[in-house]
């Protein structure tokens, strides 16, 4: 297929008719800037070849021009040497016209003929087969061509024709598709997880199994209930058996009678033991009484001996007590004397100290009064200096204003004089006196005429010179105003002139210095740390302090006046002497107190010893009296003879009681133990109680189990289990069937895929052989592989690299070469082909681009290649026919 | 005295190998046969129907199942139905009979015999029924032994009714449970001993018979027959009973074992054989085929079409055990062409199938499916 002419109108930017001029066999290049319409040309070509004129799809609508006119294209080409032409109009007044040599077709017939020509006869509507891979749009060259079934079938068709003995490829795909479709109803394609009927069967089987397990559990529970129910009925019958009840109650009554007899025997034994214990107690009491009387007599004798010893010791201790008492009284008297002397000395020392403090206060008061007087004098002087300063009118501010006004005045005067006309006199030496200017002698230097000036020349007359005013009047007025302002300020200051004002300002500065000196003097009289502005307050504080000191002194004098008046005796000693005397007397007093304490302790010790002995004597005397009383009481209670007789009688009674106890113990040993009887009775009572309780419990249990059984009966548990088993079995068989089917389909799929892969690899060999030279030219040493979808999964140079990991430029070059391979294959099988690249290879470096150009140029010797690019300079090296877009008046319709 | 003898109704029985539709129909017929028995009794002038146990399949049927036979019997108020428990519906304390009595679900014309002992059922003809009552599912004692000494008035017609297995009848294993003496009728002076438990008709001796189930419920009922009800006529206490067999079953159950298929003729013959069981009523046929053999590719397709699809739709139930194996050779693969991916895959699968074993079975099935898919593809292409 060789395009020879392409005309279009109504396509996107091409509202008006335009022709792609210069088309011919081999390599064709249209280099045009962006938005020149290159992509629109490609879309028009695609539409002409692959879209039906009657199509109303969005693709067709998108082709319409911006002006709204219907897309219209006329294409001339040769097909295996036959001149052909194709015209299509879309959307409005649609038509298709096709001429193939002498044959002419229109409408749908033309469409079908065209699709047959392009190998799309078997394709579905809208399916463009391999052509999208050969008509490569902008941006599409970066990716490998994605072929649909028709496109792949086209290639397979080419390959199958080229590869002998390869058949059944399409059939294998068809069968494999069916297998996958069927397998897809059982498992997911991605993860092979159960799905559809198989998954449902698995879920149903699990549910059925769970349901069956639940029912069988309920059945087991029911059977347990039934067994328990039967057991409960049996037990209940046993428990409610009247004969057994009578027998149990009789046994219990016999046990109770036996227990009563044993209890009576125990009572008798208890009484005998009590009697024996009483007899033993009586016997012991009497023997103890006898023993006590003997002991009491011996004790009484010991006590009397102790009394005599204590009385003898008391008599020797009494003189020592009296001596200690006298010694203690003497020490007390001495201590009182010493304490009085100490008190007198302490008073003397305090009086001396008060007198010394009064004198100290008088000194302080005198010093403070002197300081106050000096400060007050300095304060008066400061106030006088400040009053003098305040009376001077020319202060800093006024002087500054005056100086400013004077400068302004001088400034304006200078300006006036600078602009004023100058009057110069050059008089003869004798004429100077004859000329007067403004009534004064003629000046020697130039005179600025600021105002009307009269020049009087003796003997000549008077000249009045009036300077021209022009624009100098304003400046003159400003000068005059400045002078008036200066004079006003001078009047305020009471000065006649600036010199007077300067003099007065000097006075002012002197007064300021005087104030500073007076303030410094005043501050020097004040206490340290007084702030500069706190002078008056400090003086006032000093006054208050002096007043306070005076009051304190007066009060101290008053307090001290009393003692002074009483002091008729010699003058008091100094504080130090008084303190020394006080210390000595204090020491003496402390010494006297120590002696007194020692004497007191000695006295108290010997006094305590005396009292203790007296107490011991009293206790022993009381004990003697007590033993005597007890002896008398005992004898009164039971005389000695009576006691001996009672003791004999008690010993005989004890022997009798012990014999009675032994008799009872023998009887008890022959009977069953009471505890055992009690336990047996309790056990039998419990048994009867348990029986009653069991009956109640069994009745409730039976009721409860019967209710459960009724419920299970109502549900028909056995029938439900049978039904659930049946469902479970059916689903299990169904699931096993699916598993068999799945295994078979899986095996079939794998086997078919492997076979197809093997066959594909075999029949892809021609395509790879076709593509390999071009790849080797661009990528020396490269080995390319293709998968069954005609994609390049990887390339091998020094190492294997995945296609997706390659750079953008390399990927694009490979993708272009793959498309070129498709075109080559098509050409090899059908003798005609076409490849159109729009804006491809933009990312290729110059060296790689050169190689690709070589490949394209070489391929273009066999079939037509149309390159559309906006990189005119880069693609200059490509060579080929240079195309251009030329406006035309109208399309050459095929009528 | 004419009466009807039946047993083993097994109401509520389920069938795991049939679909839900057939399951419902089978169950419905097991109830419906009660009506047919009632009509048979009326037709034969029998006032009494003796049912020798296993009226119910389960000890705890659903309420509908429980009352269905009772309500069918209620429709025949002029017929007295005498029922005894069987091993499936033994008279346990909380069993099906206690439940019926407790719920008041027993019609007046239905008599439950839950205690052993003579019961006069026809005063005019002095007919006494001696029921043997199973109190549990299985017992080791012969519950008919009491009949030897059970008193009845002189000249009475003594009819025994029991459920179990007669011993010394080539069934030692079965007779371990619920054994019955083979000569009980003679020992106990019975005019007739009606038995239940075996689902096919079986006459033990002159006076002892198993009636079999009135509606067949299995492909293998042991001793042939089935689907029958007996009408017994006793003309006196010592006269031998006249026993007539009447067909009451609706469904025909047929088991065809060892069906070997090796050719298309075999397949057509099998189809004709099954359809011949009930030429006018194939829908009432349940058939169980045990199939084996080797079939070629074309014959396998025929088998799939004729037997597993069409014949299955024709009968009530087509149960298949086994399947013919695919007998494919390289010649059979020629349909896939001389070469190509499909041919190559078929060769691989055939080789695996010929290796046998579990993997070979999967490969065989895969190969069969490949043929099917291939034929579908060809059909679509055509």
Automatic annotation (TrEMBL), chain A:
One of its GO terms (molecular function) is ATP hydrolysis activity. Residues 198-275, 321-362, 539-637, 674-758 form a coiled coil. Keywords: Coiled coil. InterPro entries: P-loop_NTPase (IPR027417). GO terms for biological process: double-strand break repair. This is GTP-binding protein. The lineage of its organism: Bacteria, Pseudomonadati, Pseudomonadota, Alphaproteobacteria, Acetobacterales.
Automatic annotation (TrEMBL), chain B:
GO terms for molecular function: exonuclease activity. Pfam families: Metallophos. The keyword Hydrolase applies. Keywords: Exonuclease, Hydrolase, Nuclease. Residues 1-93 form the Calcineurin-like phosphoesterase domain. InterPro entries: Calcineurin-like_PHP, DNA_Repair-Maintenance_Comp, Metallo-depent_PP-like, UCP033093_metalloPase. This is DNA repair exonuclease.
């Amino acid at each position: 297929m060789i395009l020879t002419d392409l005309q279009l109108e109504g396509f996107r930017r091409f509202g008006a008719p335009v022709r792609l001029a210069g088309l011919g066999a081999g390599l064709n290049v249209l280099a045009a800037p962006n938005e020149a319409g290159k992509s629109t040309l490609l879309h028009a070509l695609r539409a002409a070849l692959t879209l039906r004129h009657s199509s109303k799809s969005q693709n067709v609508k998108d082709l319409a021009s911006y002006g709204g006119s219907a897309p219209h294209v006329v294409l001339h080409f040769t097909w295996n040497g036959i001149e052909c032409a194709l015209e299509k109009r879309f959307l409005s007044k649609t038509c298709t016209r096709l001429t193939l040599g002498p044959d002419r077709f229109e409408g749908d017939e033309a469409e079908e003929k065209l699709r047959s020509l392009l190998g799309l006869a078997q394709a579905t509507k809208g399916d463009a087969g391999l052509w999208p891979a050969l008509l490569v749009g902008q941006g599409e060259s970066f990716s490998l061509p994605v072929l649909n079934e028709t496109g792949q079938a086209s290639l397979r068709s080419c390959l199958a024709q080229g590869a002998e003995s390869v058949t059944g490829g399409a059939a294998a795909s068809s069968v494999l598709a069916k297998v996958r479709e069927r397998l897809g109803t059982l498992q997911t394609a991605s993860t092979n997880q159960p799905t559809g009927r198989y998954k449902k069967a698995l879920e149903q089987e699990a549910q059925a199994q769970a349901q069956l397990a639940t029912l069988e559990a309920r059945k087991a529970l029911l059977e347990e209930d039934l067994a328990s129910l039967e057991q409960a009925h049996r037990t209940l019958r046993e428990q409610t058996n009247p004969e057994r009840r009578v027998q149990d109650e009789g046994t219990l009554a016999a046990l109770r009678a036996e227990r009563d007899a044993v209890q009576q025997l125990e009572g008798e034994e208890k009484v005998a033991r009590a009697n024996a214990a009483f007899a033993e107690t009586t016997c012991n009491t009497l023997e103890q009484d006898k023993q006590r009387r003997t002991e009491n007599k011996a004790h009484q004798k010991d006590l009397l001996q102790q009394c005599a010893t204590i009385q003898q010791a008391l008599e020797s201790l009494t003189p020592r007590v009296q001596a200690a008492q006298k010694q203690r009284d003497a020490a007390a008297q001495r201590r009182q004397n010493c304490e009085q002397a100490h008190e007198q000395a302490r008073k003397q020392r305090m009086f001396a100290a008060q007198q010394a403090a009064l004198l100290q206060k008088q000194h302080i008061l005198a010093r403070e009064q002197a300081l106050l007087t000096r400060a007050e004098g300095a304060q008066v002087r400061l106030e006088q200096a400040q009053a003098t300063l305040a009376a001077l009118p020319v202060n800093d501010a006024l002087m500054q204003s005056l100086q400013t006004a004077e400068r302004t005045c001088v400034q304006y005067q200078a300006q006036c004089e600078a602009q004023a006309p100058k009057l110069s006199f050059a008089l003869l030496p004798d004429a100077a006196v004859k000329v007067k200017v403004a009534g004064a002698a003629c000046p020697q230097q130039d005179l600025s005429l600021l105002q009307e000036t009269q020049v009087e020349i003796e003997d000549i007359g008077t000249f009045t010179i009036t300077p021209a005013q022009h624009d100098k009047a304003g400046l003159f007025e400003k000068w005059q105003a400045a002078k008036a302002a200066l004079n006003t300020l001078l009047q305020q200051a009471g000065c006649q002139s600036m010199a007077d004002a300067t003099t007065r300002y000097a006075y002012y500065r002197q007064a300021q210095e005087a104030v500073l000196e007076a303030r410094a003097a005043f501050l020097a009289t004040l206490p340290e740390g007084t702030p500069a502005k706190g002078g008056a307050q400090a003086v006032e504080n000093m006054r208050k302090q002096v007043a306070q000191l005076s009051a304190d002194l007066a009060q101290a004098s008053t307090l001290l006046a009393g003692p002074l008046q009483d002091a008729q005796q010699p003058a008091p000693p100094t504080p130090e002497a008084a303190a020394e005397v006080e210390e000595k007397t204090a020491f003496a007093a402390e010494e006297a107190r120590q002696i007194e304490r020692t004497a007191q302790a000695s006295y108290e010790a010997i006094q305590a010893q005396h009292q203790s002995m007296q107490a011991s004597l009293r206790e022993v005397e009381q004990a003697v009296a007590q033993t005597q009383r007890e002896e008398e009481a005992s004898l009164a209670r039971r005389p000695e003879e009576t006691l001996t007789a009672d003791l004999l009688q008690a010993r005989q009674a004890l022997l009798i009681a012990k014999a009675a106890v032994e008799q009872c113990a023998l009887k008890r040993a022959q009977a069953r133990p009471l505890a055992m009887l009690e336990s047996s009775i309790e056990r039998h009572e419990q048994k009867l109680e348990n029986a009653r309780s069991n009956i109640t419990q069994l009745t409730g249990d039976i009721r409860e189990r019967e209710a459960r059984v009724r419920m299970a009966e109502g549900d028909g548990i056995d029938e439900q289990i049978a039904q659930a088993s049946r469902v479970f079995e059916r689903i299990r068989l169904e699931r096993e069937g699916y598993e068999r089917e799945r295994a078979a389909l899986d095996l079939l799929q794998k086997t078919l895929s492997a076979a197809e892969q093997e066959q594909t690899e075999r029949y892809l060999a021609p395509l790879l052989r076709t593509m390999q030279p071009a790849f080797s030219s661009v990528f020396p040493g490269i080995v390319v592989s293709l998968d069954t979808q005609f994609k390049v999964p990887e390339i091998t140079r020094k190492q294997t690299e995945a296609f997706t990991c390659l750079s953008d430029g390399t990927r694009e070059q490979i993708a272009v070469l793959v498309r070129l391979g498709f075109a080559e294959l098509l050409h090899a099988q059908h003798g005609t082909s076409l490849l159109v690249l729009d804006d491809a290879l933009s990312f290729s470096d110059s060296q790689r681009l050169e190689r690709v150009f070589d490949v394209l140029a070489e391929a273009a010797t066999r079939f037509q290649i149309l390159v559309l690019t906006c990189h005119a300079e880069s693609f200059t090296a490509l060579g080929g026919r240079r195309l251009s877009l030329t406006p035309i008046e109208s399309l050459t319709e095929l009528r | 005295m004419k009466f009807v003898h039946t047993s083993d109704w097994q109401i509520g029985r389920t069938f795991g190998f049939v679909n839900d539709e057939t399951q419902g129909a089978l169950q419905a017929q097991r109830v419906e046969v009660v009506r047919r028995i009632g009509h048979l009794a009326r037709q034969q002038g029998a006032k009494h129907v003796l049912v020798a146990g296993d009226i119910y399949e389960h000890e705890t049927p659903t309420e509908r199942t429980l009352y269905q036979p009772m309500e069918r019997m209620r429709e025949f108020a002029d017929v007295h139905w005498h029922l005894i428990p069987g091993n499936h519906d033994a008279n346990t304390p909380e069993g099906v009979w206690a439940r019926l009595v407790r719920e008041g679900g027993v019609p007046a014309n239905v008599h439950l015999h839950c205690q052993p002992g003579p019961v006069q059922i026809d005063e005019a003809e002095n007919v006494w029924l001696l029921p043997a009552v199973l109190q549990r599912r299985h017992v080791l004692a012969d519950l008919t032994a009491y009949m030897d000494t059970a008193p009845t008035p002189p000249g009475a017609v003594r009819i025994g009714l029991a459920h179990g297995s007669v011993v010394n009848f080539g069934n030692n294993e079965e007779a371990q449970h619920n054994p019955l003496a083979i000569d009980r009728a003679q020992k106990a002076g019975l005019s007739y001993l009606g038995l239940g438990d075996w689902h096919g008709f079986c006459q033990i001796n002159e006076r002892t018979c198993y009636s079999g189930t009135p509606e067949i419920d299995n492909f293998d009922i042991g001793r042939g027959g089935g689907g029958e009800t007996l009408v017994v006529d006793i003309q006196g206490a010592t006269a031998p009973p006249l026993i007539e067999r009447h067909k009451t079953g609706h469904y025909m159950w047929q088991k065809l074992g060892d069906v070997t298929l090796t050719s298309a003729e075999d397949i057509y013959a099998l189809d004709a054989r099954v359809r011949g069981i009930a030429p006018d009523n194939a829908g009432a046929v349940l058939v169980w085929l045990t199939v084996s053999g080797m079939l070629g590719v074309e014959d396998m397709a025929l088998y799939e079409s004729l037997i597993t699809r069409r014949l299955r739709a024709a009968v009530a139930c087509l149960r298949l055990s086994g399947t013919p194996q695919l007998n494919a050779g390289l010649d059979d693969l020629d349909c896939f062409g001389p070469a190509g991916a499909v041919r190559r895959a078929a060769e691989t699968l055939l080789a695996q199938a010929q290796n046998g074993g579990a993997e070979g079975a999967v490969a065989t099935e895969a190969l069969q499916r490949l043929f099917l898919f291939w034929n579908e593809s060809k059909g679509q292409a055509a």
